Amino acid sequence: MRRRQFLVLSAASIGGVLVYSLDRRASRLFAQEKSTQTLKIPLRFFTEEEALIVGAAAARIFPTDDSGPGAKEAGVVIYIDRQLAGPYGRDRYRYTQGPFDENAPREFGYQDKATPAEAYREGLKGLKGFDRLSPEEQDKKLQQIENTHLFALLRQNTIEGMFSDPVHGGNADMVGWQLVGFPGPHMSYFAEVEKHYGEAFRPKPISLEQSLGRKVPTSEDEDRKS
Amino acid sequence: MKTLPSTDVLIIGSGWTGLLMAKELSGRTPHSIVILERGRPRMPEYIYGMDELEFYVRKHMMQDPSTDAIALRYAANERSRPIRQFGAFLPGTGVGGTGEHWGAVYPRLMPDCFEMYSKTVEHYGKQKLPEDHSIQDWGITYQELEPYYARSEREVGISGKAGNLNGKKIEGGNVFEGPRSSEYPMAPTMVPYFPTLFGAAAKSMGYHPFINATAIPSVEYTNPDGVTRPPCAFCGFCERTPCMIGAKAQPSSVYLPVVRQRKSVSLRTGITVRRIVHDKGPGGGRARGVTYFDESGEEIFQPADLVILATYTLGNNHLLFLSDIGTPYNPSTGKGTLGKNLTHQLQFGVSVFMDKPLNRFMGAGGTGIRMADFDADVFDHSKVSFIRGGVIGATMTGTQPISAFGELPNSMKAPRWGSAWKKASMEWYDRVANIGFGGEHIPYVGNYFDLDTTYKNPAGDPLLRMTINWRENERKMVEFMNAKMVELGHAMGAKEVNPSPGYGNYDVTRYQSTHIQGGTIMAATPDRGVVNLHQQHWDISNLFVIGASTFPNSGAANPTPTILALTYRTADTIVDKYLKKPGMLA
Known about the structure:
Number of domains of chain B: 1
Strand content of chain A: 5-15%
Strand content of chain B: 15-25%
Structural class of chain B: alpha/beta
CATH superfamily of chain B: FAD/NAD(P)-binding domain
Number of helices of chain B: 12
Number of strands of chain B: 24
Helix content of chain A: 25-40%
Largest sheet of chain A: 2 strands, antiparallel
Low-confidence stretches of chain B: none
Largest sheet of chain B: 8 strands, mixed
Shape of chain A: globular
Number of strands of chain A: 4
Strand order of the largest sheet of chain A: 1-4
CATH topology of chain B: FAD/NAD(P)-binding domain
Number of helices of chain A: 9
Distance between the termini of chain A: 17 Å
Distance between the termini of chain B: 36 Å
Mean pLDDT of chain A: 88
Mean pLDDT of chain B: 97
Order of helices and strands of chain A: EEEEHHHHHHHHH
Radius of gyration of chain B: 23 Å
Oligomer: heterodimer
């Protein structure tokens, strides 16, 4: 049993506020005093040091800039942490029998042995201190590892954390969806689909739990019960 | 091993074909029927289907490669590697199978697809056929299958417009299709914005666009079995997910409601079928039943008088190989039939960047507009260096941001991450969509199924192996269509069109289509196919193999309508002939 690890974030850094109750299910509140409040988020997979590195890398891949919020506000690191602790992290749905052929042509897909969890744990060792570098130095470091498996995972998981339903821990306050005008799960556009030809139609985003009016089980949470 | 009481009919698989067979046999005969399903009854989870991460990215409804992977190699003299995660094709699992997460496009095959060999030779001579092809006529024709297509369209509930009614060409439908005996039961669906632009461009260029025929109701629809489905709401969560309101036709919403009422049918889930147990004998062997692991892992023998193998193409092949039924195909001698004529389908797109927002989160499965001007042998091939063709079209299935974010015009040469990438991706996010191509994949001597010699599944059985690669006919066809599609994109008023990079080697990471055919193909004589024209196994008269595994070649059309038409026809044969006098039908 590893020592419990936490990620401490200022409330202002994650748009709205994610508050984690003791049963580790995220519940959402609106920011009260944005500037002073801090949040202590229990980590499921990362050590605090690893979480800071991943959070910093995600924030360079999908930065906060004058076009709007990025990975930091969306809580992408929380999303990745939960995924890696769940069935995705241990490759529950991948064929993992050997022999492994690391030199297989690209067209055969990822053929290595390492699970996503193992690839992060091993790969992050090479990024020690990354979170304390300047943004320019961080970009330079990421350019150096751009062709690695770790970077491919970081990039893909960052996009997932920006745009997946908030129930998975990222896309806080649906900031990702607002960036691109994706409205989330609405039950019907029957009356709309042939209207709005050539003009932007942008319904207000809602999450799956808001749409259904009930708790939604996720594979990463179900996994922790079994 | 525990032996259960015998059943009259045993059906392996509860997808489109298994449930249809159960519905027909239970409605028209008193026989007891057991259906075995590998996956679970999933319907309670469907309400959660509007979640891109779980359903599109993690592929919640798909076959689990950790237990059911496939091995792949490009040629017999190369090493194989397992497809560790599905990508080029996405077979389903659970009650309803792959039919629960399809796009629901519902076209018939072109009539000459059934006679690809003789029609090509007739028009262009034998020298036009690719050197290493293994094309052979099906032995049945479009005309024989037509009444079954029509029946499937009424029961599944199809929206569309006929383009050829009893030989009369009708503008607005697909004027190149084979003659139909009846109009579709529902008018075409609504069409989202982007496909309407495609349709207008195609028309302006002198082509013949039409609204896709789809198993997506344009109005509330009640089929001849009394099953009612609501019209589609265009919620945009469709392919890779089940329908949240039961509009899109799925085995669970079309056939299961009927099968559930039948007391003679029992459906068992969580079952891993291991072998079809059979006796070999002169003049044909006999299936005695199947062995399987139930959900608790106990091994069971289920005896049966009639066995119907009704899984996806991959499972049909794998189970026959593992059960040692039939003669494996040998590509160097051409002898043997099991595994022969593995075909996939060509599918690629060009990205069309527009100046107006497309609202592409609204959509439904295969709704959109197609043109068949370059399908099959519709156009003259004497001046091109390939045979056959496919359909070009634009659909709006509903787009989600994890999959779609980051598609940029080639001219931008943008980085793949960072602020410039983010801004450009946001700018283009809702202004890019695809013109797509779906084309025929002809069979070759060197593309086939067998058992892998290295990789095994958790039960210790060898994985099914695909030996497959693209060849010149595919590469030339893609090059030709690519150019036509770029032209169409510009005619739509595109700011820019990214062409397809073309076809290199078969790529398991790039989605093609979940349309894999062959391996247990039908033929009029046992030396040329695994099953006869009634999909009855040539070696074992009480074993039927149904599904796209019996197609001798692919079409450009999506295969489900043809799979179902053949299944209706086989069901009629079993009820009207086989059960009255069991034995080889031939």
